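Hi V.,

Quick status before I head out on leave. The structure for the redesign project is tokenized and pasted below; the design run finished overnight.
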């Protein structure tokens, strides 16, 4: 089959070519569209190359589209259906990746890594006063959301010897039995956790899931970790809780001021979509001035291995379609 890839980095080309050696593979420039591409059977795109009805008219022989992203709102599914074109995506690629970063933030906060590095680098001091941290072993971790990422967080937490409790509107009791944790209400979780980590999507129902009305329920001295979406936490409530000592610290890979990022891969495709607004907001952001807060640039998903998994799943989608047994279809 003839396969056209858009938005491919140089390092990806050899990898894709070696895995699809039995097919004719073309790497296309999205600015030139289908010009010179001939009759494409399969198209693989990224977030920056929308597949619209107009796009489809450029590919009269197209039978299958496989996007190298989890989100697929950049593809006109109705137009594809009218042409009988199937569409697949990459359902998951970074469960362990984001979970590992969650603990990178938790350790950075619990062991005061940022102020420690800052003291040595900026002041040349090696004194350890005011840098005492706390162990994770024996502490209670509250996991909000036990989907793919939340499950990996539970696994890692158990390796640290932590007690785990969880909140999820759709509890998976078989998972709780397998990994030895219990589900609680959100209020119970906040009151019992030494650290709280969020792993739920941003929806109207989860907007400001942690807010001025319930953040005071947190165990005094607890820490908050957020690698999911900034809008899950009311920023003013978080800032007030940190300033009052209700919370001892926070690790944030996402901020409310980011706005809504549909898919992390959107950031790789063209930088952060709200970067200019975010820079302005951060200039006066109280959280940025707190030594007990670690802020990172929405980077939890970004490892070489995770990006390789995206390619692997895309290649598997193509091979499955070629065998007549398509997988990871979106509707």
């Amino acid at each position: 089959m003839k396969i056209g890839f858009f938005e491919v980095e140089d390092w990806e080309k050899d990898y894709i070519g070696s895995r699809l050696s039995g097919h004719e593979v073309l790497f296309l420039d999205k600015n030139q569209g289908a010009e010179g591409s001939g009759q494409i059977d399969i198209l693989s795109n990224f977030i920056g190359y929308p597949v619209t009805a107009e796009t489809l008219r450029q590919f009269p022989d197209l039978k299958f589209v496989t996007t190298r992203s989890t989100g697929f709102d950049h593809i006109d599914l109705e137009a594809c259906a009218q042409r009988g074109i199937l569409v697949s995506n990459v359902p998951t690629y970074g469960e362990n990746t984001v979970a590992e970063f969650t603990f990178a933030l938790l350790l950075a906060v619990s062991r005061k890594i940022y102020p420690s590095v800052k003291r040595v680098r900026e002041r040349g001091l090696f004194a350890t006063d005011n840098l005492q941290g706390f162990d994770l072993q024996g502490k209670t971790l509250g996991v909000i959301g036990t989907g793919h990422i939340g499950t990996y967080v539970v696994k890692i937490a158990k390796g640290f010897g932590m007690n785990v409790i969880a909140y999820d509107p759709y509890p998976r009791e078989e998972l709780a039995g397998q990994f030895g944790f219990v589900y609680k209400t959100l209020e119970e979780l906040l009151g019992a956790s030494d650290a709280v980590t969020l792993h739920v999507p941003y929806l109207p129902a989860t907007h400001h899931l942690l807010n001025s009305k319930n953040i005071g329920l947190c165990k005094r001295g607890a820490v908050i970790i957020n690698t999911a979406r900034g809008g899950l936490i009311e920023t003013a409530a978080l800032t007030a809780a940190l300033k009052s000592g209700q919370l001892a610290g926070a690790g944030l890979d996402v901020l409310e001021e980011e706005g809504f990022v549909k898919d992390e891969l959107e950031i790789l495709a063209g930088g952060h979509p709200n970067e200019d607004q975010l820079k302005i907001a951060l200039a006066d952001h109280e959280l940025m001035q707190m030594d007990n807060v670690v802020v990172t640039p929405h980077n939890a998903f970004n490892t070489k291995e995770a990006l390789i998994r995206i390619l692997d799943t895309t290649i598997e989608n193509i091979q499955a379609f070629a065998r007549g047994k398509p997988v990871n279809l979106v509707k």
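Above is the designed sequence. The CA atoms of residues 195 and 223 lie 5 Å apart.

G. will cover questions while I'm gone.

Best,
W.
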